[in-house]
Design a protein that fits this description.
This protein is mainly α and 139 residues long. It has one domain. It contains 5 helices and no strands. The radius of gyration is 17 Å and the shape is globular.
Length: 139
Amino acid sequence: MFGNDRQTAMRLYLAVGCGAAIGSLARFLCGYVVVSLLGWSALLATAFVGSWVIMFFCTLTRPDGRLMVGPAGRQFVTGGFCGGLTTFSSMSLDTFILLLEGDLGLAATYLVSVVVLSLASAWLGYLMATRFNRLPITR
């Protein structure tokens, strides 16, 4: 994957690790803000934010996109930050807790909602970034 270039490999590892640390902290802070300050449920918030961010970023940085980002920058955002922000294990834990509390209906609603609304959020990120890519570049 990386060939013999250990420096490139280490740069990618560091990018993913730093991005994941920041993404995990962002997930914690997002949950705090959503629950403590806004009084909403944190069960769905980070999944939507992460789905939007990853799709928006990937659309902006694809070969015909507006931003040129190298492999380390791309992995920092996609594998690191978004991976730390929205993880399958977090969704599994939230669902399992609902099941332990005996709320099968809410657990099922949560799972379906996360999948459907995360895809809708990714679609919105794609649409927004596609429009942004089409804007004329001004200097």
